[in-house]
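Re-running the complex after MR caught last week's input typo. The corrected sequence lines follow. Everything else is unchanged.
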Amino acid sequence: MISADLFSNAVVSGILLGGFYAAVAVGLAITFGQLDIVNIAHPAFVIVGSYTAWIINTRTGLDPVLAGILVTPIFFLVGVAIYRIYYAAFERTGQESLSGLAFFFGLMFIIEVTLILVYGVDYRLVNAAYIGESIDIGFVGIPYRMLVPFIVAVLLTGGVYLYLSRTFTGRAILAVAQDRLALQLMGADPVRVKQFAFGLAIATTAIAGSLLIIIGPVEPSVGRLYIGRVFAIVVLAGMGSIPGMVVAALIIGVVETMVGTFMGPSWSPAVSFGVLLLTLAVRPAGLFGRQ
Amino acid sequence: MVGSAPRSLLRTLSIALASAAFAGSAAAAAPLKIGFSMALTGGLAGAGKAALIAMEIWRDDVNKKGGLLGRQVEFVYYDDATQPAKVPGIYTKLLNVDKVDLVVSSYGTNEIAPAMPIVMRKKLVFPSLFGLAVNDQFKYNRYFQIMPAGPEPKVDWSRGFFDLAAEQKPKPKTVAIVAADAEFPINAAAGARKNAQRHGFKVVYDKTYPPSTTDYTPIVRAIEATKPDLVYVASYPPDSVGMVKAAHEVGLKAKMFGGGMVGLQFAAIQKNLGPLLNNVINYDFWVPESTLDFPGVKEFLARYQEEAKGKGVDPLGHYLPPFAYAYLQVLEQSVNSVKSLDQAKLAAHMHKTTFDTVVGKVKFGSNGEWAKTRVLMVQFRDVQPDNLEQFAGPGKRIVLYPKNWKSGDIVFPYKQ
Amino acid sequence: MKKISPFWIVVVAVIIAGLVFTSTVKNEYYFNAAYVVLQALLMAVAWNVLGGFTGYVNFGSAGFFAVGAYTAIALDKAFGLPLPLLILASGTVCGLIGLALGYLTLRLKGVYFAIATLAMAIVFETLVVNWAYVGGAKGAYILTPDSHLWFDSYIQMLFMVMLLLALAAIAVSRYLNSSRLGRGLAAIRDDEVAAECAGVPTLRLKLISATVMGVMMGVAGAPYPFFVTFVDPVSAFNLFIAVNSIAMPMIGGTAHWIGPVIGALLVGSLQEIITVTVSSELNILFVGLMLVGFITLAPQGIVGLVRKFRGRKP
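Corrected-run output:
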């Protein structure tokens, strides 16, 4: 059953899929990984991103990814506003862990239902010239529908990584996670830094959402399917490591396609989450976490 | 929650009064209440909302004609949110608190089954909307399924696909069966296995996948590696889209592809997939071909399409809405013939009568399913990109099976 | 223990009220509605035993619930056991899973633990989906048995069963909360390392509360198949079950045993009322808004509000 042809195709598909997962998870790697905010509504924002891309695409015919990039500033501001509420209600009072979780749970439902109320529950899809076509390199076939999201994902995660490691604000975000006091001594306001970081994380969902709707049809509750996966990726990586997150996303992607190709796809969730459980049991801080 | 009952009763009463006033008739008698639960949120909401629009059109039609038994018809319905756990509560409320006169089912197997024990205890007729083989378990003789699956629902579902395949020259030898891990697809795949066996096709791939799958190309590649002549897919809308796209991207070489894919009947998905659909053979229940031009169906769809605007539901409404209208027509015609709400008489009437509805003649068999299957196998033909209107008329979905409704010949093998 | 505490008087009164309810009220709707609320109450109390008392957040409540339901389905199909034995078996199975989860707390803290529970639920769901004997992905039908003791209908009996289970769970939770054990658990919640240093047997306490939580969720799931008559993995592992069992204690207040009870009665009843009055999406929207509103404005839940109102320190 295992042929070189199938095997290499599975690996390539897995890498492409993993790249897309990385794009969905990168925002969470910031909120959850760096800021310790359990934003369970993250996939719901991704769906909002998909709907935005869909609206712009069907109204103007603009490429969905460009549409996604175009609206990132708006998503950024929304993220800032949400962090403001979150800060005022929980962080200031030291209630963040449990209450914050419930807060985002509620937020997720509000987003989902608002989408249903406004746009209904029909599946939404976008048009772009490259959807449905593929290129063949040797015996490996690569659908553009997966390749485009992969390339955008690489640029997105790469950009976020460079931003965090090279710029002052980026380093300040990393510092928030590690040493709040030092940050304050440096004269940076931790709340402002976190607010900026949260905005940045939500801004990435605009792009991730446009990628999701390129890959397949979207309706308001699709986001729930991604909750487990994106949290698994961030935790598997070890909180807060962006390169680690990419590796974890690729692992999950490749495991899913390998199991799907060779064992029967119905086992792939158990295998990928089994990998997560095993990793946590052996290395609780994740693959690349701070021990 | 006990304290709220009077208020909700008041609410339904006020709705009743309002709707009676709207119908403009001097309804002397108390309104006749039909109760049901419907998925208006959650996974099945797209279908549930479309069904509700069709049902409301029926209600307005009946009330314009003077109602049932001279009483204005009124709906009492609640959202089951696509959660089966809510259904028992809703039906007991309908029967014990709202005191509805008749009940009909929600949409889908998962939402129909939980209502069955309650309806059975009260011995009510239960016209039912698109559940697959629910009555195989309950064996309730007052259950009537409007979905034209046929007397053996699971097997009849894919009978057409495999009968067509067996007629082709050279006769295909191998089949791949792939299904989503969910109630309907698993049952459809089980039926497909039986049909494959009946015709002596060798099953070379038989797997299921989780509905949360993002990328379907690995699955299609694994299928292609087994070089099947036929590929039978049982899937739900998002995976149907994924499968069709992946089949094109991988370059699937099967001679027939399709079968039991839910979603390819919906206009938005048809529009998006466009030419990728060409030559796919899939099930359907009604398509705008001349052979299926039943009296009233065009008029009904025109009104549905008007109502559906801006509601975020299927804009053309070929798949479910005519049947949601028809299952109430069956009830209407039975009540009018029997001239009472006597459930035993209604059931007896439903068993022996052939009904004329917008979906054609409906005759129920002893198990409450259609006496003869009318699962159509349609082939997409000559589909143009990015055009929704093309699906409103004939010529794009050719009926190949059953023979009575055939509107064209098969293109074989499947070419992309 | 000389004087009978008011708690037990209330418990006995509720049982008597329940029996009176079943023998006087014929309208089955109220039993269906009450069953749903009680099931949610039991799940909320269960979640709170671990999540509220020790601070270990369980995202996978739906997994426990579903394993309870599927244990009952499997044993019903295999041996046709009576309901009490099924409840016992489901409780045992889920208790063992809870115990395993308890050991997990040795290595995993905070969010890592929460994600691990979520992963566990997904692994269980995949197992059930692929387990053809209990119906797999296509679901299982359970025909309601004909016998229902002296009750007028099966749902009345199920209601009574659920009432007793819920009361038992409340009693256990109250005991855990107010005994010496409870102080240990609270110490873990506040600062686990400090508690360990102060000689609190943290592991033993965590194992106890994780096991108790598992047992409670398992027994909550066991009668579910007989209530809905059709169970498939999608509905049994429903996200709503997990959401409710977290949201209800949060709204009621997690630190005190009465918190989840108040939260579940309030939210559960409201949900039932909204289902049958306000149709469609507004239902979920309302739950979402209420959750966000409550959490933002009253982070200590209703119990916290009451305490603040009385001017006591929480």
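None of the earlier attempt is carried over here. The CA atoms of residues 378 and 387 of chain B lie 19 Å apart. Chain B touches chain C through 46 residues (CB under 8 Å).
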